[in-house]
Amino acid sequence: MSELNLEELERKYHLRLETEEHPEDRRVRHVKELALFFFAGALLAVVFVVCLWIALAPSTQPENRKWAMSILAAMVSGFLGYLLPRR
Questions:
Q1: What's the pTM value of the predicted model, to 2 decimals?
Q2: Which domain covers residue 56, as residue numbers?
């Protein structure tokens, strides 16, 4: 079996990795993704606070408290499932 001569390959071939995306387009895409991330986080925070307020208010009707607790449980379990790795 013959050995591969890496020095000879280095002289013959050049490997260059670069993206086809223009740097300005990449920056705009990153700004959009970051804005969407923070908007979604803010929306989740608002829903969480409203559901918590409804669930803990003493004047809340039982059926409203039930759906608020369901949403809170789904949000907390989704968050914990995201944070904790699977084995």
A1: 0.67
A2: 21-83
